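One record is set out below.
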Amino acid sequence: MALPAQKMNTFGRLFRVAIFGESHGSCVGVLLDGCPAGLALSEELFEADLARRRGGGAKGTTPRREEDRVRIESGVFEGRTTGAPVLLVLDNAQADSSAYEGIRHTPRPGHADWVALQKFGGFADYRGGGHFSGRLTASLVAAGAVAKALIQPVIVSAALLEAGGASDAERAVSDALAEGDSVGGLVECRAAGLPAGLGEPFFDSVESLLAHAAFSIPAVKGIEFGAGFQGCRMRGSEFNDEILESDGKTATNRAGGINGGITNGNELVFRVAVKPASSIAKTQRTVDLRTGESVALSVAGRHDACIALRVPVVIEAATACVLADLMLLEGKIPRVLKGSFTTEGTEGTEK
């Protein structure tokens, strides 16, 4: 007899990230366990990254405009983390489910509708993709803002390199929109200032953990590190990064800052492939599950024409969460961040 279906929504060992919510539920959010005490944390910390995820109304991004103001519900007292789990909540105030009732029985090509039905027996929330929705990346971005603060002075940054196979992303998106279609994209992420020695062979290599986190982001379908797949066309003399100094600095960085699954002190570099958005106005074929007959489907509602436009900050967040976990494991982040406090009955401030 098969075991009951369970959703595994937690990632990390010491810095543990658990996301929750649905696209058209009352809220989405994240529970962070293992965040050290003493980290300065306010609602303003999240604003810039969540604004980047919204896309700022750029052509090709969803018309849905959630305010995305984070409520810190636990784990913070007088502006600093207490060492208890940190609960972050973002309200869904702009959900509109009207477009989904009509396609409840016609799974959308490219979406998780059909597999969700098989796994959860019809109990999954189908509105806006429910728990499978890209809306849940707001939770991940919130977690990433905390992780970025923890790992300073390490800096994580990501950017869109191309969309629809072209460097002119705006034109590629415009052409797709004109045809009621969508395009994918290529996003590059870098982390500067990392210490050497993070990661473990074999199954907890830095590549393994980053790939695990990256593939949790809806629409990510591929990943490569350093020279990536181009490396298979090189000779060893071309691919190898010659070591210049005793601190591990190399002349090139085709390994992407990782050797043997462990950071080598050079810049971490990887790229992810983002598929075209599945919800498109262009007519596609699917099956009406009530009759078993083939039907035409054009997806209405508010959707992105190019998800990759909003992926960079999400990739940054996933990367920062992995790095925070690895740095805690190696003792590179203090378990207690030393602040100042006054002890009753004594004079002065202990630091």
About this structure: The longest helix spans residues 311-329. The chain is about 20% helix and 20% strand.
